[in-house]
Amino acid sequence: MTQETQSAMTPEVRAMIGVSGDVVQAWGVVDAEYLRRFTQAVMDPDPRYWDQDFAEATHYGEIITPPIMVSYLASRIRPDQDDPVTRAFEENPESDGIGSVERPGELPPVPTNLVRVLNAGNELEIYKYPSIGDTVFFQNRYSDIRERVGRDGRAFLIITRETTYKNQNEELLCITRASTIRR
Amino acid sequence: MSLPLEELLKLEPEDILAHNERPKADDLRNKQQIFFEDVEEGMELPKYIYNPTPTHLFRWSAAIENFHRIHYDLDFGLNHDRNPSILVHGSWKQSVVPQYLKDWTLPKGWPWKAQFEHRAMLVPGDILIMWGKVTSKYEKGQMGFIELEIGMMTQDGIESMPGTATVVLPLRDGPDIPYPFVPPAD
Fold first, then answer.
1. Which of A27-41, A111-125, B30-44, B92-106 is predicted with the least confidence, judged by mean pLDDT?
2. Superfamily assignment of A11-28+106-182 in CATH?
3. What is the pLDDT of residues A90-143, one digit of tens each?
4. A81 — contact with chain B (CB < 8 Å)?
5. B139 contact A CB<8A
6. Any A CB within 8 A of B175 CB
7. What's the rounded Cα separation, in Å, for the pair A151 and A116?
8. Do the beta carbons of residue A150 and residue A183 sit within 8 Å?
9. How far is A151 from chain B (nearest CA, A)?
10. Nearest-angstrom CA–CA distance, B63 and B54
11. What is the CATH number of domain B13-52+90-169?
């Protein structure tokens, strides 16, 4: 890094590495109707998702569900919270529909004045297919924050948020990591 | 006959669609196991070809409760965000990946890991080719590990999701892959 480049990796930013959120229980359970809608939307006709007799005879011994379906289950808006979609448009009629929608279990923001956010990529680790009836627990964590210098000589950050999903028996279902660039 | 990706991209868009290898339910029901020994470096996986419409995008938004207007509100996409159209969701592409790896490793393999980036704006009308290619293989703990290069390419050869994956296949004379999956100790 050149002397002219101002580091974006301040002590306050570095201190966020490893910071975890609460363990949050996702609303509801893994259910057959959500499974139907999800697998139809991703266009996966696998009978392991809907043919009970066939599924029970497979390696898995039961109906399975797509591994990262639980990540969307976890981001559901709970019915016992205020409607954030309506509020977003009351506050800003030009809302993009997502910017003001609060999701459960969010981490505290990384204290940086770099405000432009770009998607840098995703990682998946899969260990077990969620079962119908599972309750899902998830926890977010800043697993990594790195500094890079762009071609314009300005420092930027790559922030990786890891989310671990387990079921009610503490069985690990999957781990996702989403990295964003902050410029 | 499965066409190599390079050959597929030489075809006209409507001809690319004719080479879709996405399995039907009965194909998945009757899927025969690929064993570690069957796999060679450079081998290509079947190509899953998609031609998403606004309805497909809306269905995905509704299924996962993603309210971002860039995916379903054309006026917002064009005039507010200055996008070329409504945009195909990165989350949908991300969800195709484990499906694709699952299908290839069925009935007893395991789609363990994947990592990928999101590049390019994909819009309704694009033809999208989910592809994979074996880059290496190794045995560990009586399991067969296959390293893959993966991606989702447009009909114009633009790679929208470059990535890699690791899947696990049984050895022909080996034990079943444990389920839930437990990777071997280093």
1. A111-125
2. Hotdog Thioesterase (3.10.129.10)
3. 888 888 887 666 677 889 999 998 888 888 899 999 999 999 999 999 999 999
4. no
5. no
6. no
7. 16
8. yes
9. 19
10. 14
11. 3.10.129.10
